[in-house]
Amino acid sequence: xxxxxxxxxxxxxxxxxxxxxxxxxxxxxxxxxxxxxxxxxxxxxxxxxxxxxxxxxxxxxxxxxxxxxxxxxxxxxxxxxxxxxxxxxxxxxxxxxxxxxxxxxxxxxxxxxxxxxxxxxxxxxxxxxxxxxxxxxxxxxxxxxxxxxxxxxxxxxxxxxxxxxxxxxxxxxxxxxxxxxxxxxxxxxxxxxxxxxxxxxxxxxxxxxxxxxxxxxxxxx
Length: 221
Description:
Elements: H1 12-15, H2 26-38, H3 48-85, E1 93-97, E2 100-103, E3 109-115, E4 121-127, E5 133-139, E6 145-151, E7 164-173, E8 179-180, E9 182-189, E10 192-194, E11 201-204, E12 207-210, E13 214-218
Antiparallel strand pairs: 1-9, 1-13, 2-7, 3-6, 3-9, 4-5, 4-7, 7-8, 10-11, 11-12
Helix pairs in contact: 2-3
């Protein structure tokens, strides 16, 4: 039996109103089924098999909605568990993708990075929080793998740079002048964990490290 129309709704072109929602919910399906029963032709009632199929469809829809709600709750619980598990990293040494460093007054800062191939020339640009170039360091030959360079904390004029957070950029080149892949990373001891956002953030000194960027965890020493 064909489903008869229950309500006649004007189109958007006639009324100027926003179109109705396109997603059919569990309640919509139930209302449609009841309307179909109420408006069926008494001389040609709905076939029992057809009615059973529609009931089975309704039951499947109800189960899928329940599964979706449970998965949403499980995802929320898993996220909260991951955040609190991050607290166990306090005191651990972590390595993370990133190019941020913390310069402390009177102390040099080590910049760590990884080279994808041997490089005959490496240029490290150090920038402040506003993106202004503070210092450019020219490094000699370095082999592929983990490398680092020590910044004495002075700017291009030889003056001591203010303590705080800086970013660095590494540009490496091989003997043919072709650029070599280079990516910075952060390594340090976790001193705290922030749980006030959607993702746990590790505090490595003054540097904020999102948990998702951590690539290695080890015991100091």
